[in-house]
Amino acid sequence: MQLLAAMSLVLASCVHLPGQPALSSLPTAREVRVKMEARLQAVQSFIMSGSIEVVAPQGELHGDHIILAKAPNHLRAEVLGPFGQPLLRMMTDGTTLTVLAFRENRAYQGPASRANLARFLGLALSPAEVYAVLAGSPPLLPPDSQDEVATTSLSGQALFKLVDAGGQVAQELIFSLSDSAVQRAWVAEGVGRWGLELEYGDLRPYLASRYPLFLKVRDQEGRLLALANDELKLNQSVDQALFQVRVPPGMTLVKLP
């Protein structure tokens, strides 16, 4: 995966302010990576509901959402309009993507590629990457990446930096030192090229850490996904049948590339 963008000049200040932890008290880069991976592994499923906003070159979508997911890449998202009227239903088992567009009376089906998900979700991510992002744990660059931990100007938080082995892709996370909850994240490809910016908010305690009710994701193409959840349930039983695809009779089927 080659995602994009960093904010190093704004966020990478290593000034030690009063009240901050000393450098010696910071976790090692390996410890941070292990904790981040453990946070994601702890979430085996989730159910969330609330309001959604999607902005993409194809247009905008606003409504209420219900999202169900099972690790590592099974997703089902429902977008509802006024009075609970269904607008969009997206399902993937990690391999095949099916989208029911009720206003168009069309069903779109094809590989669950980043390009196809971007067409409807607004972000060029794989199903597993979408799962991780929604679960509050942005996927990290590969283990062979160079990484480091640095203090930031925010008390109780630290900045975790990753650069891939080729030196082309950079990633940064701002996380809490107390429970490793991620608050912001960036990914950049090349110099000065924005790719992905994530912002998490309204963090609530779950599973020995905190997970977000609010999520905003932007990419370099100006696409936006924003979720404001009224409800978040982790590790609930989710029926596998919910990810099985059935195109309603009368809908026009459009094959995705």
Give a verbal description of the structure.
By secondary structure, the protein is mainly beta. It has one domain (8-242): Clam (outer membrane lipoprotein receptor (LolB), chain A). Helix content is 13%, strand content 46%. The protein contains four helices and 14 strands. The protein has helices spanning 8-11, 29-42, 114-121, 127-134, and strands at residues 45-56, 59-70, 74-80, 86-92, 96-101, 106-111, 146-151, 157-163, 169-176, 182-189, 194-206, 209-219, 224-234, 252-255. A 14-stranded mixed beta sheet has the order 7-8-9-10-11-12-13-1-2-3-4-5-6-14. A hairpin with a 3-residue loop joins strand 4 (86-92) and strand 5 (96-101). The model is unreliable at 1-24 (pLDDT under 50).
